[in-house]
Fold this sequence. Notes:
The protein contains 14 helices and two strands; from the N terminus they run ααααβααααααβαααα. It is mainly alpha-helical. Helix 1 packs parallel to helix 6, helix 1 packs across helix 11 and helix 7 packs antiparallel against helix 10.
Amino acid sequence: MISATVVTFLQRAVMQGIPLLYGSTGEILTEKSGNLNLGIPGIMYVGGISGVIGAFMYENSLESPADANGFLAVMIPLLSTIIGSALVGLIYCFLTVTLRANQNVTGLAITTFGVGFGNFFGGSLIKITGADVPSVALTTTSNFFRKTLPIAETTGDFGKIFLSYGFLAYLGIIIAIACSIFLNRTRGGLHLRAVGENPATADAAGISVSKSKYLATCIGSVIAGLGGLYYVMDYACGVWSNEGFGDRGWLAIALVIFAVWRPNLGILGSIVFGGLYIVYLFIPGLALRTQELFKMLPYVVTILVLIFVSVKEKKENMGPASLGLSYFREER
Length: 332
């Protein structure tokens, strides 16, 4: 038997890590095309608030929470998140691929825009509801997202650790595995990696560099946006509050380095990061200042991994060669 504290810690670590897994998987797919999207925190924010808007409109169309349809309660926020995050990814691509704007500056601008977008519409919804607390509660919709497998309660510690999560948690793992297979085992993945390593050579071989970058970045943005939806609907139990995401978007970017640009390693890395992020809650007697030091652990580990990878200088553990660089076809 595993102690209740350990079981609870592992559950919380997985739940804390799933948003990071979505964000890192989306960013890995984006970076494999050579685009460095530092706008992931903003895209996760937009994905979260887009889902909240969709859920809010659906719940307000019901006469009673008992009238809610499970399929619609899930699909409306899901589609809203996909559309919202894809549009932000499209904006990033237009600026960096078509207009060849600086990727670092554009990404940071997207993050600022995304946070402002989320806070504006989140604040608007809070005013509409007239809530006494600065948050929006979407309990009816959240209950459908948080529904677990029926056998989770009857399989002991195994069920609590592996089966007690909503469908978005398992979807995140499936997407990470699918991205890993796509990048390493398919012709499309080979073309995408070629674009990220040397776009001029890929272009000469007949691969559309712009199309590859657009598709990878927009799909990666959608995946990252789903992390925002998971955080609100599952982890936060359907409660939206402005600035509630904290630094999870930046942790997702750090996880890309920790996972050495491999989505399958991101699965384990997300659980490790999730555990490191909350471990201070399970250490009794910690002062507040000491807790803040413990919150730095994921970043410290990322720095150590980056140093280790740089010293080893193994090509397979490094990012794409053209990462962050705009491609000018005239220079080919």
